Amino acid sequence: MANYRDTGVVLRTIRLGEADRIVTILTPEHGKVRAVAKGVRKVKSRIGARLEPLTHVDMLCWRGRELDIVTQVEVVDVFRAIRSDLARLGPAMTMLEIVDQVTVDHQGSPALYTLLVRALRSLEATASPVTLAAFCLKLLMVEGVGPSVDFCTHCGREEPLVAFDAGEGGFLCHACRRGQAVSPEVVDLAKRICSGGLARALTEPEGPTVEALERIATSAVEHHLDRRLRTTRHQLTEETTPA
Amino acid sequence: MKERTVICSVCFNIGLAELCSICADPKRDPSIICVVEDPRDVIAVEKSSSFRGRYHVLGGALSPLEGIGAEQLHVRELLGRVERDHIAEVIVCTNPNLEGDATAMYLSRALKHTGVRVTRIASGLPVGADLEYADEQTLGRALDGRRDVDA
Questions:
Q1: What is the mean pLDDT of residues A124-150?
Q2: A235 lies in a domain?
């Protein structure tokens, strides 16, 4: 079948030639798809606005040899609130980058797609500062490398956990501690996220606990990707001083 | 051709001298700056003949996904110009896409302390187009930015 239809989230776009773009889309049925969107950079393109990164779409594609071709696009969700708020746009961009990095072409699971869509919808609705950290932890779980939060990764004992090391794969007790020292609040927040208390975890207000967990979670993702994330290096909200 | 062109020391547009022809033109309003991504955008805005101020070429747009942050663009220089040259208005004329919009929000935040008026170019339907073929995002923005008809 040369044509296929699927939903998906646009992860990134690259300019191609004079007026085209290559869009990378995560779909539930076809994995990560890379497709050419023809003429979308022209002012009069109808589908250009629908194929911006961070758009949830329903699309029709023509299957090509190397790249597919997008022929029709309908918008499911544009995430307007995220787009108009730098404090939410940054984390959303990081999520898109992570998803793009953990998948290869034509690979990707429905679970990953669902996770991304849910995380974006939650960020759109609540602006919770915990969203990115929660997304990272859940993603590691979906990928089968979720950090251990209930017992020490090294010795397996249920001692109080005081440190986190991405190489060890989770939190560590006092005797085995290495890597980053963490507060009991951070461990508790991670536990809630990983074991069914997500809704309550998302109500956690901004503060050092949330920031610490986000650092740990993104560093764990970076450890598994074996690569630094670009989007966490340039914070959209940081200040520039005049020359 | 390439040997004779230089980048303007004030606005980073391409010109033939240290100061580009627009920055050197005394008839242009020095209190309004139009911020664009690329020298080609200067040409596009010039063609409209609707703008009589000066420009500032950023050299791109903020793009976290490509690893492009404010330090890779001429943002610092823009802040310097605004603080030094008594600018009344900064028009953010970046592309109406994710990166361009993020850049606009970033600049508005970065310029807040100077008290300068920061505006964003309107987004809407191309002249001569048919409404029924418009995409919902563009049409939505056009409705948000509607204005009174004064006949």
A1: 91
A2: no
What is the token pair recorded at A94? 């990081």
What CA dihedral angle connects A192, A196, A202 and A207, to 10 degrees?
10
Residue A241 lies in a domain: no
The predicted structure's pLDDT at residue A239: 59
Q: The domain spanning residue A35 has which CATH number? A: 2.40.50.140
* A138 falls within a domain: yes
To which residue do tokens 């544009």 refer?
A78
| Closest to B76 in 3D by CA, of B45, B32, B106, B117 | B106
ipTM of the complex: 0.82
Confidence of residue A241 (pLDDT cuts 50, 70, 90): low
3-state per-residue secondary structure call for chain B: CHHHCEECCCCCCEECCCCCHHHHCCCCCCCEEEEECCHHHHHHHHHCCCCCCEEEECCCCCEHHHCECHHHCCHHHHHHHHHHCCCCEEEECCCCCHHHHHHHHHHHHHHHHHCCEEEECCCCCCCCCCHHHCCHHHHHHHHHCCCCCCC
Candidate from A47, A93, A239 with C-beta closest to B64: A93
Between 3.40.1360.10, 2.30.29.30, 3.90.1170.50, 3.40.190.80, what CATH number should domain B28-124+131-144 receive? Answer: 3.40.1360.10
What is the tally of structural domains in chain A? Answer: 2
Both A137 and A197 in one domain: the answer is yes
Q: What is the pTM (predicted TM-score) of this model?
A: 0.89
Q: How far is A39 from chain B (nearest CA, A)?
A: 14
Closest CA to B63 of B31, B93, B102: B102
Give bridge partners of residue A62 from the DSSP assignment.
A3, A69
**Interface residues from chain B to A (CB-CB < 8 Å):** 62, 64-71, 75-77, 79-80, 82-83, 97-98, 101-102, 105-106, 109-110, 126, 129, 133-138
Range of the domain at A217: 128-225
